[in-house]
Amino acid sequence: MKIIDEDLAADEIMHMLPEEQIRHSENVGRLMERFSKWLHAYAADEMYPYFSLAGYYHDIGKVCVLPGLLTKQEILTPGEYRLIQQHTVFGQELLDLAQKGKITGIPEGLIPLLRDAALYHHEWWNGRGYPFGLEGRVIPLVARATAICDSYHAMVSNRAYRPAYSHDYACGELEREAGRQFEPALVTLFLEHEAEILRMMGELCAVGE
């Protein structure tokens, strides 16, 4: 784990990430802001106004991963992939430091929500995700929603190791993974607003994300 100095602001820590990762986090936050408005039709949750912040900080643990791994153009080795998977646990550790006041800039009452998104957004609906293999509704709602926004944006973005996929391809992958990686009801809700998502991504691209 790369050492992070304490007494930094959380947003300063986020800006230690590679530029591609910063843009991804910002845009997952924007998608989560939009998704949270639609989630009112799914369930009541007083924390919806803060889901966008959870989306922004979901990958904060990646600052503890060597930058060369995050920007590597070649296929990752199994060992390298396992190291990157640790970003979920590193995110929890950083947010625990925020809970203790050693990292500033996040209201204390929001830290549990942000921790849930950071730690659990790679858990799968069918229990085959990481780091704990949680299943179904045991996974916090904010993490189940973040997983969809995170995956969608990752697919439609240029990555170090591949060009961006199309919006249609990304939506098709979400449909195919519903019931396996993602909660089916949340995928349905997300895709009901597909045209709005496409417009939003077009606007982001127009301003260079």
Explained architecture:
It contains eleven helices and two strands. By secondary structure, the protein is mostly helical. It has one domain (8-206): Hypothetical protein af1432 (Orthogonal Bundle), CATH 1.10.3210.10. It has a two-stranded parallel sheet. It is globular. The model has no long low-confidence stretch (mean pLDDT 93). It holds the Pfam family HD_5.
Give the name of the CATH superfamily: Hypothetical protein af1432
Please work out how many helical segments DSSP would assign.
Answer: 11
As a whole number of angstroms, the C-alpha radius of gyration is 16 Å
Overall, the morphology is globular
Q: What portion of the residues fall into strands of 2 or more residues?
A: under 5%
CATH class: Mainly Alpha
**Count of individual beta strands:** 2
What is the average of the pLDDT values?
93
What summary fits the major beta sheet? 2 strands, parallel
InterPro entries: HD/PDEase_dom, HD_GYP_dom
Domain HD-GYP: 1-206
Organism: Faecalispora sporosphaeroides
Protein name: HD domain-containing protein
List the keywords.
single chain, 209 residues, mainly alpha, Hypothetical protein af1432, two-stranded parallel ribbon, 2 strands, HD domain-containing protein, HD_GYP_dom
